[in-house]
Amino acid sequence: MKKFLSALILIFVFCSYVSAKSFDFFWDFGTAYIGGNVSKNDNLAPFEWEADIQVLDFRLEGVNGLTFAFSPFNCWCILNPPQDQDIHLITFANFTAAYDIFKHERNIELAPYVSAYAGALEGIEKFRVDAGLVFNVYSSLIWPEEMIEAEETSHLRGELLSAKLGVRLNELKPQFYFDFGMNIIALGMVLFSGDPKDLEPCSYP
Description:
Layout: H1 2-18, E1 23-39, E2 48-62, E3 66-71, E4 73-78, E5 88-99, E6 108-120, E7 128-137, H2 145-153, E8 161-170, E9 173-183, H3 184-192
């Protein structure tokens, strides 16, 4: 697992170095997802509700549509009442490679992607790999002025809404999954703040 993790880090650093001139750097506070999964085995396992929270995203987005991303914290867990024991995975080395078919030229993204989650708190041998399709919507709806300014000056760019669908290897056990998510800051503002502003599509820095 250490070799696997080291290889992922080297790949990310290499891609960052070689493609620096054709990639732009962006970051985001993270996304909170809720969804579900079904395991694939001899007898199809019961449906399980899940939560998936990723805190901080650092991305390189290329003019050709490629994206390479890293997050230092991800927490995935099953929400169903536990049968034998709680099922969760907290990881600190989370990498994603994706290809936006719109080449980052719109306020929406539609991209096949692969994500690897390693460096688990539960043990270095624990990991998960997701592969599928992600759909992201970007907008300055409910963003405060400080965040809109940060989009222009500090390369802050976070999706407002997100949806994912695909297959997963969770400790080498296959699963089908879907997730619907919202930007962590936007979710907090919806839950705890006042009226949202009028919708104003945001542009890339």
